[in-house]
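Write out this protein's structure.
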Amino acid sequence: MKKKIIYSLSSNKDLARKISRTEKAELGRVSIDHFADGEILVKTLSDVKNKDVTIVESTAKNAHERLFELLLLIDSIKRGKPHSINLYIPYFGYSRQERVSWINEPISCQVVANILDTAKVDKILTFDLHHPDIKKFFNTKFVSIPTASLFGKYYREYIRKHKINPKDVVVVSPDHGSNTRADQLVKELPGSKKVILNKHRPAPNFVEHLEINNKNISGKTCIIIDDIIDTGGTIVSATNLLYKYGAKDVLACASHAVLSGNSVNKLLNANISDLVFTNSIETDLVKSIKIIDISSLIEL
């Protein structure tokens, strides 16, 4: 059996440590140097010869820097002649730029895919990819791992603890893009139903308004599920709309806590009874916001 070694860079250091302990894998040592002109130098300080290497790095918060760190580390590792290199990108930055929305826009996600393909790793894995068509941009083997089982486990316990009738639970997709995620969570919560909201977005990071297709939510416990919460605008608007139509309680969950600007305060003031993220993006949050660990879904 080949020896396993796991690396982290500027993001997901806690996640990498958890995986190394669980998998009894060596935690790779990395040097990251920043020069006065803004250039960086990244290299492995650990021996990787004939080892199975896993790199964990979310491309969030200055995504271009995280991407370049990855490319340099991969090149450094390949020069050490490893047996294999698998790349976990828990949160895949630029995934929301997967199509042309306005005239002359680039498909930025495809550009990133082309760049990562040049690194020639064995496999690239992520969690809850924003859109399934993104896989088509890659020549490298690409896998998106769903987190619905983790959210399902969390909410089954929440429903039990709060003595909620499963038939009074409604899973809410804030737009048609999250429809598949909502379907997956409904399967995890027997007895629950699904509602889809229509979202009209006139410009990036701006939600004009939401509409409910199925207004049969009066007296229900509603769980909004999305892949990304960034500015918080969609979730806050959805919460207000659900309460307007008589929801008893509104909960919310998302895979990726991008949380730009003052989004945390907006969410905390939105009358959301329970808010949950995964640790795909490592960030300091108030204790009232729950974090689900995705390390159990990672296999070296």
